[in-house]
Amino acid sequence: MKVIIRNNASEGSLWAAHYIAGQINAKAAVTAEPFVLGLCTGSTPIETYAELIRMVKAGEVSFRNVISFNMDEYVGLPESHPESYHSFMHKYLFDHIDEKPENIHILDGNAADPVAECAAYEKAIAEAGGFDLFLGGVGEDGHIAFNEPFSSLESRTRVVTLTRDTREVNARFFGGDYNKVPRQALTVGVATVLSAKEVVILAFGSKKAAALKDAIEGPLSHYCTLSGLQTHPAGTIVCDELSVGELKVNSYRYFKAVEEAETK
């Protein structure tokens, strides 16, 4: 596991955007095969998406040959709802870049058969060639996507029931009303994320500190689904000084020393 520590969330967000763009460009330089990218929602990736938009408009990267799959979507929320993840992704990324509409994939939370929808999503990912890179965030309890604590580390795309804690955290997007947050969601599984060739997780702010401690220094456990990243050959956590506040001093020094050595 690699841990990139920046002074603040803005610096971390820019690092992630430039890394993603660099990986897209690197693949485009050697093959005509599309770059398959996993994407997340929430407030954490907004600055990363803003920088990617700037880079596309500046001609520094293109999404013309990118196929994307989003992590999750609420069940029963209309796609046109301002808090649906369809709306979020178009507002903060898709409406501003050159990705082909047919290459954009987001789970259908209104599918007549949600189980079949999840199975079809996994099949579509496989048919695209699997993820080159998956960009994700992490919840305050260490969950990735909607894989709440005690989700199987072998889980794949499926229907999940959201915990009260998650719904309360997300209530800020629904006027502060917990009851307006959908009770279920469709989500990629832990194993779906970890199947990517690379995984980049964003974690900013002091509220993520306990989750990072569990994920980085704790045991591999379904209690903290982000801990599954410990087994990944190319897993990276991009964080800021506030989010690493609970790491051991020697852990912090180790990750800073590794990055310093790699950049010389």
Which short descriptors sum up this protein?
264 residues; alpha/beta; Rossmann fold; 10 strands; 34% helix
Q: Explain this structure to me?
A:
The structure is a single chain. The protein is an alpha/beta fold. The chain has a single domain (2-191, 199-204, 233-240), classed as 3-Layer(aba) Sandwich (Rossmann fold), CATH 3.40.50. It is 34% helix and 17% strand. It has 8 helices and 10 strands. The protein has a 7-stranded parallel sheet. A 3-stranded antiparallel sheet has the order 4-8-7. Helix 1 crosses helix 2 (46-57). The protein is globular.
Q: Note the beta-strand portion.
A: 15-25%
Task: Supply the CATH class.
Answer: Alpha Beta
Shape: globular
Uncertain segments: none
Q: What spatial order of strands do you see in the largest sheet? A: 1-10-9-6-2-3-5
Report mean pLDDT, rounded to a whole number: 96
User: How many angstroms does the end-to-end distance come to?
Assistant: 20 Å
Query: Looking at CATH, which topology would you report?
Result: Rossmann fold
Into how many domains do the coordinates divide?
1
Query: SS-based structural class?
Result: alpha/beta
Radius of gyration, in angstroms, nearest whole number:
18 Å
Helical fraction equals: 25-40%
What is the number of strand segments? 10
**Topology order in helix (H) and strand (E) letters:** EHEHEEHEHEEHEHEHEH
